[in-house]
Amino acid sequence: MEKTIDRMCLEFLVRQQPAAGLLRFAYGAIRVNLEIERVGDYAESIARQVLKLIASGAEIPKDRFEEIAGLSVPMLTDAARAFVTRDADLARRVMEVEETVDDLRSRLNRDLVECFGRNAMAFPALNACMMIARRLERVSDQARNICRETLYACTGEDARHPDSDIFRILFVESAGASRGAIAASVARGIGGSAFHYAVASIDPQPVPASTAAFLQTQGAEPSASPRALTEVPELDHYHVIVALDPDVKRAFPKRPRKVVFLDWPVDDPSQAAGGPEAVQAAHETVARFIQGHLRDLVDAIGGVDTLDLGIGSV
User: Fold this and answer.
1) pLDDT at residue 85 above 80?
2) Confidence check: pLDDT of 208 > 50
3) Contact call for residues 33 and 9 (beta carbons, < 8 A)
4) How many domains, the chain?
5) At what angle do helices 276-302 and 178-187 cross, to 10 degrees?
C-alpha cells in the first residue's frame, strides 16, 4: 500500500506538474504516507511485546496503557482526516493533545520503574511495558507530524520545524541534578530569547538541598528534578549537547547527527567534602566555570549580547 501511494503521487507530480497548493498537497501525501507506515511498524512492535507479557504472566497497569492509547489513536485518526479534508483548524487542535500524551507516558514510566525497584515487576516485563508505552507515544508524534504536513499543504505555513530560528542547547549529567540545576540557572541570563536551554540526566534525582540553598542565595529559584535523557523529545533538534561529566559519553554511543557534542566536565558540588563554606565554594566554582564557557559559546555562535543576573556575581 505504501509503495502504491508513493507511485501514484510521483506520477501525479510528473504528469500534472502541479503548483502552489496542489504541489504542497502531493508532496505532503508522500510524507504522510511514510508517517502512517511507521505507525504500522509500531503496531507490530506492540504486538510482539504483548506476547512477551502474556508468556510471562506479569501483572500490568492496563488502564494506564488504555489511557495513552485513548488519546494517541484518535489523534492519528483525526490527523489523517485533517489532511484528507484539508482542515487546518482540526490539525491545530490535534497537535495540542501531543504534550498530554508525553506527560502520561513519562508518569507511567516513572511508576513502572518504581514497581521494578520494589521487586513488584521483573525486568523483562518492565522492558516490554516501557517499549509499549514508547510506541503508543510515538503514534501521537506521527499524528503531530501529519498535522504539520496538513498545515503546510493548506496554508504554506511550515510548522514542521518550529522555532527554527532558536538555538537549542541541552545540558546533560550522568547522575544527580546539582550541575544541571546550576547550568539551567546560569543559562537563563545568557543569550536572551535567541537561545533555548534544557537539562537532562541519565539518572535523574531531586535537586540536592545544598544546591537549592546555593541557588536561593543567588536569587534563583531551584528547578525541579531534571528530565530523564530517554524522555527528551526530538534529541536531534538540539544544536549543542553539553556533557557536564565524563560518564555522559556512554549514553551517546552514536551521537545525533548534526549535533555538536561538548565536554564541560565539573565535579558534583553537592558531594564536596568539608563544611558548609566548602560546599558553597564548590557550587560557586561550578557556576563560574559553566557561565564562562557558556558566554564564550554564545558569543562564538552569533555574538548575541549576554545579560547579567544575580547568578553572574558568584
Assistant:
1) yes
2) yes
3) yes
4) 2
5) 50
